[in-house]
Amino acid sequence: MDDALSPATRLAYDETHFANAVVPPIFQNSLFVFENFAEMVETYAGRKTRPVYSRGLNPTVRAFEEKIAALEKTEDALGTASGMAAISSAVLSVVRPGDRIVAVEHLYPDAFRFFEMFLRDMNVTVDYVDGRDIGAVRVAIPGARILYLESPTSWTFHTHDIKTLCDIARAAGAVSIIDNSWASPIFCQPATLGCDVVVHSASKYLGGHSDVVAGVIAGSAEFIGNVRSTILPYLGAKLSAFDGWLLLRGLRTLSARMHEHERSGLAIAGFLADHPEVIAVHHPRLGGQTPPGLTGSSGLFSFEFSPNVDIPKFVDALRIFKIGVSWGGHESLIVPALVTRAQVGGPNSALRFGVPENLVRLHIGLESPEDLRADLTQAIGASLK
Ligand SMILES: *Cc1c(COP(=O)(O)O)cnc(C)c1O
Fold it and tell me: Which residues are annotated as modified residue N6-(pyridoxal phosphate)lysine in the UniProt record (predicted)?
């Protein structure tokens, strides 16, 4: 497709190669057979690229990968079975025992656990820095193999100057990897800011309907080719054809959904900022500023209650907001930071980097913001101490 087309057009458009179908079919196949001996030899010799077995290449998954590469403005992309598979595969394709990673604080908690539990055992160390402190990143980076970023960060929603940080990584010979799940390519295209590799939990906004767990890695043809040939075939965390098809369906409305999440998210964040029982709102664009590198905001942010609010009571009093992790779907969700205290199973980034106990995370879905505001108002009223 034409490079000059806007993201909204790219997302709504599907190639109609098959039977003039406006929606591409699902290639629900493990296997693709060869015409003859010569074609098999050409393929195995690497002179011909074609689907052989869906752990490697599947046409439905490939259509999703091409769409993401176009949106992220990278040469190529690779679908994975989850966001964590995208993160672990991208990182494992770079690090070797003895290497060091510099990562920002307040990472997505399972990425943090992967670093702390897996990589440590491989003799890969991770140093965490406050990504807002450019000087601290500059000091930490020499000798590091990877600069690992998430902007905004999980729970605290700190934003970073992605371009400056990626420039620092490049000058030091480190590969920059960023988790772009929060902004989606609609509101941030990190590759255009100098970031080497972009990873997503496609389970969130890219899928958008809470019906798929998937991930994607976007980067140069060389980086993706290396993950495709040295990591994915052996760890095996490949995106399935059906999930790829669901993602193609989700992507058609990504632009419309993101603008709605943005509008409603800002409306609810503004309402909370004015509420007498709320002492802080952590939303990257509250107050009208737009952090560098972002062109918009999604529906996920956090806020802090005054001590007058009984948080468990508040959570239970909500009628529209559902209690749950994940985010990026049509539904509004709440997670109180209090639950991270109770969580078992390895190191917890929220605890390690100190998230206040009065913090609450909201995902603003596609319901009417007036109804969501009324729900929050009645639940706060019902939970005052
Ligand atoms: C959910 C999430 C992930 C992990 O994605 P899965 O698809 O659940 O494996 C990674 N990063 C962020 C920021 C997330 O919210």
Answer: 204
Q: Are 200 and 90 in contact (CB under 8 A)?
A: no
| Residue nearest atom 7 in ligand 1 by C-alpha distance | 83
- Taking the centre of ligand 1 as the mean of its atom positions, its distance from the CA of residue 84, in whole angstroms, is 6
Determine whether the shortest distance from the Cβ of 361 to ligand 1 is under 6 A.
no
- C-beta 204 within 6 A of ligand 1: yes
CA-CA distance, 186 to 335, in Å (whole number)?
Answer: 25
Indicate yes or no: pTM above 0.90: yes
- List of domains in the chain: 7-251 (3.40.640.10), 254-382 (3.90.1150.10)
Tokens for 61?
A: 């998954």
Give the separation between CA 43 and CA 49, rounded to whole angstroms: 6
Cα 323 to averaged position of ligand 1 atoms, centre (Å): 17
Query: How far, in Å, from the CA of 186 to the mean position of ligand 1?
Result: 18
Could you tell which of 91, 104, 110, 182 is best to mutate to test the pocket of ligand 1, judged by most ligand atoms within 8 Å of the CB?
110
Q: Measured from the CA of 328, which atom of ligand 1 is nearest?
A: 15
Q: Which helix (H) or strand (E) holds 68?
A: helix 59-72
| Spacing, Cα 3 to ligand 1 middle (Å) | 29
The amino acid sitting at 276 is P
152 lines ligand 1 (CB under 6 A): no
H/E run at residue 102: strand 100-104
Residue by residue, pLDDT tens for the chain (385 residues) are 566 778 778 787 777 667 788 888 899 999 999 999 999 999 999 999 999 999 989 999 999 999 999 999 999 999 999 999 999 999 999 999 999 999 999 999 999 999 999 999 999 999 999 999 999 999 999 999 999 999 999 999 999 999 999 999 999 999 999 999 999 999 999 999 999 999 999 999 999 999 999 999 999 999 999 999 999 999 999 999 999 999 999 999 999 999 999 999 999 999 999 999 999 999 999 988 889 999 999 999 999 999 999 999 999 999 999 999 989 999 999 999 999 878 877 788 888 888 999 999 999 999 999 999 999 999 999 999 9
